[in-house]
Amino acid sequence: MAKYMAEPYKIKVVEPIAMKTPEQLAAAIEEAGYNTFLLKSKDVYIDLLTDSGTTAMSDNQWAGMMIGDEAYAGSNNFYNLEKTVQEIYGFKYVVPTHQGRGAENILSKICIKPGDYVPGNMYFTTTRAHQELAGATFEDVIIDEAHDSQNEHPFKGNIDLNKFQALIDRVGAERIPYICLAVTVNLAGGQPVSIKNMREVKQLAEKHGIKVMFDATRCVENAFFIKEREEGYQDKSIAEILKEMFSYADGATMSGKKDCLVNIGGFLALNDPDLYQKATQLVVLYEGMPSYGGLAGRDMEAMARGIRESVDYYYIKHRIEQIRYLGEKLDAAGVPIVKPIGGHAIFLDARKFLPHIPQDQFPAQMLAAQLYKISGVRSMERGIVSAGRNAVTGDHHYPKLELVRLTIPRRVYTYAHMDVVADAVIELYKKRDTIPGLKMVYEPPVLRFFTARFEPIK
């Protein structure tokens, strides 16, 4: 018997990857200021920086690229994308954008007024940045279990209804334009939200006239966990679960670069015709015509086909099982990871991995840098650097979770690559006591984790 599920695809095209010496790796991470975002792709062996836009597209998607209708308005590919979103997700209106943050920007501008509050199940970096730039204050209303890396709650992405109600009571429903519900929750470790919780959030929001907007970036992964873990859904298809999930939303932002299986693209989906009209006005200003929104026709075609491919059970089952394979190897070796294992990545708990490094010396940032230095494996920090600073006081946000994300691209790497990653992390864990902290030597004013630079503390 195989120890794991074989890939439900065969490899047609290969891309050589870098094999660097230890000296070359050390020089590269130093040149990058100990920030894995600033590494050159040519210097990376196994790239687990992100699953965003790193998907290997199918032959069917590439075939679709050849029938791109590049008309400036009314592209055939737009209507195919619109029909696909309506059929698979159930929304009435679709506004294409160049990627997810384009949709976040438009949603924030059409819904938020200065002084508003936007609750959500843990922040995401670009989402919160757009909300704050529009004048809102983000409020985390996720359940407490989400902040504990070792808690095995099956739906750690759930909204705490008492926290949501408390915010409504404190600031008034009129100052809450919508609640942002992420499926799954990235910074909690790729943790899902239950159908029951989505239904209850919708009921509470509707009672107070508050809209529910999904961050739907990894909705297929969320649907898989519902099928696996939630009573009554074992016999439902992924497509059926998705349709019910989105029935509890008034709209959604989508980065197509994740669960839509493409390298670029996204959209804002809505049910309200008035919001849709406002969105089409702004997409012209920031992105392009409402029928392309910053995308070529061929990219919209690839996304439409990717959405349909993504609901295949064997595709998503393989994806989740490959991630679990890596997580279980690390867990068996005693490496501290976020549990339960989530949908798109394995998250190393840097607090437990490097307990001797205080949080303001950026332990997760250093852990990611050291992993690259010994193996050429690129990961990313999801802790104090990503959390940024308080807009009023200028102090660091100190999140309870200080994590390194090993993000698995879709349909790209094999189980052999997962073995290499596991061996490298385990080797690093054995000599963790020798790893020093970092100091920040350059900090941009917004989304600092992308371009900040660091030096080791000697």
Question: What would you say this structure looks like, in words?
Answer:
It holds the Pfam family Beta_elim_lyase. There is one protein chain. The chain is α/β, with parallel strands linked by helices. It contains 16 helices and 14 strands. The chain folds into two domains: 22-51 and 313-456, Aspartate Aminotransferase, domain 1; 59-310, Aspartate Aminotransferase, domain 2, CATH 3.40.640. The protein has helices at residues 22-31, 59-65, 76-88, 100-111, 125-133, 161-171, 195-207, 219-229, 238-247, 273-286, 297-310, 313-332, 350-353, 363-375, 384-387, 415-430, and strands at residues 46-47, 93-97, 117-120, 137-140, 178-182, 211-215, 251-255, 266-270, 345-349, 377-378, 380-382, 403-407, 438-442, 453-456. The strands form five sheets. A five-stranded mixed beta sheet has the order 2-8-7-6-5, sandwiched between helices. Strands 9-12-11 form a three-stranded antiparallel beta sheet.
Helix/strand layout:
Blueprint: H1 22-31, E1 46-47, H2 59-65, H3 76-88, E2 93-97, H4 100-111, E3 117-120, H5 125-133, E4 137-140, H6 161-171, E5 178-182, H7 195-207, E6 211-215, H8 219-229, H9 238-247, E7 251-255, E8 266-270, H10 273-286, H11 297-310, H12 313-332, E9 345-349, H13 350-353, H14 363-375, E10 377-378, E11 380-382, H15 384-387, E12 403-407, H16 415-430, E13 438-442, E14 453-456
Parallel strand pairs: 1-10, 3-4, 5-6, 6-7
Antiparallel strand pairs: 2-8, 7-8, 9-12, 11-12, 13-14
Helix pairs in contact: 1-14, 2-11, 3-11, 4-5, 4-10, 8-9, 12-16, 14-16
